From TrEMBL:
It comes from the Eukaryota. InterPro entries: NAD(P)-bd_dom_sf, SDR_fam. This is Uncharacterized protein. Keywords: Oxidoreductase. The keyword DNA damage does not apply. It holds the Pfam family adh_short. SUPFAM superfamilies: NAD(P)-binding Rossmann-fold domains. It comes from Zasmidium cellare (Wine cellar mold). Belongs to the short-chain dehydrogenases/reductases (SDR) family. The keyword Methyltransferase does not apply. CDD domains: SDR_c.
Length: 245
């Protein structure tokens, strides 16, 4: 019997951690998965990867800007319209380094210092990473509180679903299980062009390597599962030991 008999919604699913998480839900037995991102082509690739992992999965792809309140609400509404409920919300949409590097001929050349970054860059990063996580969490929790618990959560007081935020210090307070995954340097399409700049941070961690998207996805699935039913508002660090060293 799968730990994930319900409906999963993953933002930032077009690549990296979001894609690995969506595929992992399918591998672990979740058969109803909604994937969301601004990158429509990336969503198509993720859908193919899910279908290769498990051919009987039902998938809905939703092009969404998580910094836009109306689009986030529509994302959850479309998920519920397609599948009838929402049980696992994973908010993995995020951006960072590409907006904070100077470019020359399309190639990243050096990190921007704080006084060199524009307010537009600051607003876009916070709109996705912070506002987007909050908007998504709010919409997901609102839906979860309307529905009866799954058999996997029944008997666990107050349980209506699971919300996991990625790359955010946002602790969700509500009656759904919630946690935050705080990755260290992870090898994704977003970070791979910047590995030379990130080498000092990588070397600090005892494991002395970047993490993989799958290693973060495995942690996310634990927090989303009923095995983490008493984990609430926790920030779980997945960084190869960077913060302890």
């Amino acid at each position: 019997m799968t730990l994930f008999p319900g409906v999963a919604l993953i933002t930032g699913a077009a690549s990296g951690i979001g894609r690995a998480t969506a595929v992992s839900f399918a591998v672990e037995g979740c058969r109803k998965i909604a994937i969301a991102d601004l990158n429509a082509a990336g969503l198509e690739e993720t859908q193919k990867a899910i279908q290769e992992a498990a051919k009987d999965v039902q998938i809905v792809a939703i092009e969404t800007d998580v910094s836009d309140e109306a689009q986030v609400n529509r994302m959850v509404e479309k998920t519920v319209a397609e599948f009838g409920r929402l049980d696992y919300g994973v908010n993995a949409a995020g951006t960072s380094h590409p907006l904070l590097f100077l470019k020359k001929g399309g190639i990243l050349t050096k990190p921007l210092k704080s006084h060199e970054a524009s307010s537009a860059e600051f607003d876009r990063i916070n709109g996705i990473n912070y506002r987007g996580a909050w908007l998504s969490s709010r919409a997901e929790i609102t839906q979860m509180l309307k529905q009866e618990p799954l058999p996997t959560h029944d008997g666990r007081p107050g349980s209506r679903g699971s919300v996991v935020n990625v790359a955010s210090q946002l602790g969700v307070v509500g009656r759904s299980e919630a946690g935050t995954v705080c990755p260290g340097v992870i090898s994704t399409p977003m970070t791979q062009p910047n590995m030379s700049f990130l080498a000092p941070a990588i070397s600090i961690a005892p494991m002395n390597r970047p993490g993989t998207a799958q290693e973060v996805a495995d942690t996310i699935l634990f927090l989303a599962s009923p095995k983490a039913s008493f984990v609430q508002g926790s920030a779980l660090v997945v960084d190869g030991g960077y913060t302890i060293n």
